[in-house]
Specification:
alpha/beta; Thymidylate Synthase, Chain A; eight-stranded mixed sheet; 10 helices; 23% strand
């Protein structure tokens, strides 16, 4: 396992890409050429520092804002998210849905029985602070069929409370270091922070621990080689995600009323819309970037 540790995602990310280009092995999976490392972990000491600035390509905030809204709403319709990224249309199912709609996978229950993945993880940690069972599954057996254009990359998230700190680790079978990693890390770090807010109701003195992002295949496609070279010539600057003042979801994983109001604002044709509270809040950040930027 190759482990890259730093205070921020920006530092881990830059170091991992540099190592990948220097030591990666060429691979051709599904007819696409890439440079790949196996079993890579990015350990971010402060999950709040999950964005980065770079003159060539930094965190794609407009898309991340839309993706956060899509995920936390529990939706899986490509019609919504494709307004910000057309590539979803190329991998959608015949019914217009996406398999990799992460919020739909953990906040909804497609099997129709038992708790959702998010409910299971929260309840496990509340029942036993030291549990090893607070797991959320993303890739499912139902995704294993030939011809699947959207074979979910994320396998599972594992959550722990140790030494009065809340840790999250996410394990991915495959991660495109340029298009995938920065947006995935942004969502999962936000998920850890939201889950942390819910757990503090039960454990008021709980502290936020590190986030670890594990990719069994960490790769850069050949179409991005020149872009990465240019990125490496400029500075990677850490940037933090806004805090959560108004919850995006309830403890049971259902969209909060504030999130629903935000969704109504996004879908509204009105030029202006009343937005929650002032200050540095993730909901307000989502609205500002998804619509205004």
């Amino acid at each position: 396992m190759l482990v890259f540790k730093a205070e921020s995602f920006s530092e881990c990310y830059r170091e991992s890409i540099s190592f990948l280009f220097a030591n990666g092995i060429e691979n051709s999976a599904r007819g696409t050429k890439s440079t790949e490392l196996l079993d890579v972990a990015l350990e971010i000491a402060d999950p709040r520092q999950c964005f980065y600035l770079n003159e060539e390509r930094g965190s794609q905030k407009k898309y991340i804002a839309a993706e956060l809204l899509w995920y936390y709403s529990g939706r899986n319709d490509v019609a919504f998210i494709s307004k910000w990224a057309k590539f979803w249309e190329s991998i959608q199912n015949p019914d217009g849905t996406a398999n990799s709609a992460y919020g739909n996978l953990i906040f909804k229950n497609p099997e129709g029985r038992g708790p959702t993945q998010y409910q299971w993880a929260i309840r496990s940690l509340i029942k036993d602070k030291n549990t090893r069972q607070a797991v959320m599954h993303f890739n499912r057996p139902a995704h294993q069929y030939f011809g699947n254009k959207d074979f979910v990359c994320t396998m599972y998230a594992n959550c722990h409370i140790r030494n009065n700190k809340f840790y999250m680790s996410v394990f991915m079978r495959s991660n495109d270091a340029i298009w995938g990693t920065p947006t995935d890390v942004a969502f999962f770090c936000s998920l850890q922070i939201q889950m942390f807010q819910h757990l503090k109701i039960v454990y008021p003195d709980l502290e936020l621990g590190s986030y670890t992002h594990v990719a069994n295949s960490y790769h850069v496609y050949d179409r991005h080689y020149e872009l990465v070279k240019k990125m490496m010539e400029t500075e990677f600057i850490p940037e933090s995600i806004p805090g959560i003042v108004s919850n995006l979801i309830e403890v049971d994983g259902q969209p909060s009323q504030s999130l629903q109001t935000l969704m109504d604002a996004i879908l509204s044709n009105e030029e202006s819309y009343l937005i929650f509270q002032d200050g540095n809040d993730l909901l307000k950040w989502i609205y500002t970037h998804a619509i205004k930027s």
